[in-house]
Design brief:
It contains 7 helices and 5 strands. It has about 260 residues and is α/β, with parallel strands linked by helices.
């Protein structure tokens, strides 16, 4: 299970010739949790993680979706990206085979969105209290009652992220910390950024409206799906009526033939 077993090909930095990897190992060694904290992280993952089993040779990707108060920073606001935008990064870079996604997010609606619109993926995440959208207000990063548990959750995500070699995220200092934990394994980690497209401003006043824009986009998708199901139901109803008429005619012909 992810988070219980050691990361694949974990090197501890000892065989890393690259200087930057060596620095990452030194940082990890100097800041490694004490045993009691490692034990607490282990127990937290075991208790709060969703089903996190993968086949031995399957790949996974980490997706970090930062939302909540990023739209409340005025001219420095960042955009709410749809889950679909992160998955497009995988598809556009020929990683269509990856279906195991470690989802790290501060927004509970992102988890709902992932399951509702992208059920073909194996979504793996920690079950904990999260804000919905920007309801928590500005710089309120602790939705639960325990700052200690929130810190353990963050350290747990660093641990989990070390299982994967691909990282999809937008601008975030927490994303940088996740990345550092991943490269500390000594492996090469690919970073993909949906917010680095040519027509996107990472920090902009217009991004304050992106939460409402995303909600409208998702509501439209829901209506389209609902209308599509309604049309399918109508077509099936018509087909059933046509079949019944055909059966009635055949039954009538049989009755006439036997008289």
């Amino acid at each position: 299970p992810i988070g219980v077993c050691a990361p694949r090909n974990y090197t501890n930095g000892f065989i890393a010739d690259d200087h930057s990897l060596h620095d990452n190992w030194l940082t990890e060694y100097a800041t490694r949790p004490q045993q009691w904290l490692r034990h607490r992280i282990f127990n937290y993952i075991a208790k709060n993680a969703t089903h996190m089993l993968m086949e031995k040779d399957e790949d996974c990707a980490v997706v970090h979706i930062r939302r909540t108060d990023v739209v409340l920073h005025g001219a420095a606001s960042r955009k709410y990206f749809a889950v679909e935008d992160y998955l497009k990064e995988l598809k556009e870079n020929n990683f269509t085979h990856i279906k195991n996604i470690l989802l790290f997010t501060d927004d509970a609606t992102a988890i709902d969105e992932a399951h509702e619109f992208h059920p073909e993926y194996n979504w793996m995440y920690l079950k904990k209290k999260r804000h919905r959208g920007s309801e928590g207000g500005w710089e309120n990063q602790i939705p639960g009652d325990s700052p200690a548990d929130e810190m353990v959750a963050m350290l747990s995500e660093f641990r989990l992220a070390q299982q994967c070699d691909i990282f999809v995220h937008t601008s975030s200092t927490f994303s940088n910390s996740i990345y550092r934990s991943m490269v500390a394994t000594g492996r090469s980690i690919l970073r993909l950024r949906p917010d680095e497209k040519k027509d996107i401003h990472i920090f902009h006043q217009n991004n304050t409206e992106s939460a409402e824009e995303l909600q409208k986009k998702l509501d439209l998708k829901r209506r389209n799906v609902s209308e599509g199901l309604h049309i399918m139901h109508q077509n099936n109803t018509v087909s059933e009526e046509q079949l019944q008429k055909k059966l009635d005619i055949e039954q009538h012909n049989v009755s006439v033939g036997t008289e």
